[in-house]
């Protein structure tokens, strides 16, 4: 009895330390190994293998941005080249009136096609006078006046993908121009790149942006061709890991898997970018869009809405406004969740998970099978000791679905749907000793 008593005392001490460590967590106290406090008696030793963070924050572009993944809107997925200053302004208005801006969607990003086909006589880029007659500076002022930020687009090549002038060898001039307009974000594409490797073409724009003295988010878009996760952390605040997304289940699932490979490299300052959201564009079902949004949030992907916000449906707004899921994406721990295991025919019943601040886990049950499936998370497979009690909150139903689950948790998931949970391990009950 006495022995047992001593054991539980030391256990409580351990626990006190553990809770302390959890509440004092902050960006500045982040050290490697990052997940050192995710330890016994709650977490299994396989935890650190499942959620490898060995490359987290090894490189950082220290411009102070991207402490959490960027959120906002981009014109490409819905409008492609059919943009003009009216659409951009109305979108800014809609971000505010729908409440999306208050939820964190603050970047209003103009993609390709904003500039004239040629530079002016002084070699400067010029906004297309037909579609942006008031110029980009006036648009930036309008957007800033709403408390939002403005993004623009260029290309690390001779031309943009839509054959407007590119910024390769014009980095300093173009960065100065962007800064003079009040630009806050640059998406930098990869067309007409003259066969020069990305590692040579992307750093000059980083340096040019830095030299302007204006803090500008630098979003690399080299389509994952040169494995940017391995080097781009020193160059940009996010880097595309794949080709362009399109508004289909096939594209979205393929891209999710490709992006998953680089999970260990994401972290505050630099994020893997599996491309912008297609939610609301009509090519997928409600369940598929829910899955898209859930997995992008869990993967710490940029949340850049790609539909026409001026005409957003209640259903789409419900998906992208889910505060609990946005909080997963913006969690200060900043560890990318990943596919942990798959069961069923061709492994189509998937469990994705990741660590969150406060010693919690985000867990997704993603049914990529063509029929309804029962998906199970066993504690040992997601890195928890099996005797630990876990409280489980469903982030789509917005309620606790199990207060004290032990050992495993199962749920039925419709075809192509995804259920997203927060698992909070209990610190009160332990079956050990
Ligand atoms: C601006 O673009 C939108 C969307 O493509 C279009 O509906 C509208 O007619 C355009 N307005 C002008 C003035 O060109
Ligand atoms: C420029 O780079 C330096 C060194 O990384 C950094 O401290 C500074 O904040 C950067 N400035 C801007 C405007 O990005
Ligand atoms: C969309 O992406 C999928 C998967 O990569 C591809 O098979 C399909 O051809 C693409 N569709 C279009 C219209 O580009
Ligand atoms: C608004 O969206 C609906 C479908 O949700 C579509 O039928 C309609 O044409 C859209 N209106 C505009 C102005 O784009």
How would you describe the overall organization of this protein?
The chain has 433 residues and is α/β, with parallel strands linked by helices. Helix content is 28%, strand content 20%. The chain contains 13 helices and 16 strands. It has helices at residues 2-23, 47-50, 76-79, 85-97, 135-145, 171-181, 198-201, 203-212, 249-260, 286-298, 314-320, 323-329, 379-382, and strands at residues 71-74, 107-109, 149-155, 185-189, 217-220, 238-240, 271-273, 303-305, 338-343, 349-356, 360-367, 373-378, 389-394, 399-406, 408-413, 418-425. The strands form three sheets. It has an eight-stranded parallel sheet with strand order 7-6-5-4-3-2-1-8. The protein has a six-stranded antiparallel sheet with strand order 9-10-11-16-13-14. Strand 13 (389-394) and strand 14 (399-406) form a beta hairpin. Bound molecules: 2-acetamido-2-deoxy-beta-D-glucopyranose (NAG) (4 copies). One 2-acetamido-2-deoxy-beta-D-glucopyranose is lined by residues 62-63, 210, 213, 215. Residues 1-24 form the signal peptide. It catalyses: Hydrolysis of terminal, non-reducing alpha-D-galactose residues in alpha-D-galactosides, including galactose oligosaccharides, galactomannans and galactolipids. Keywords: Disulfide bond, Glycosidase, Hydrolase, Signal.
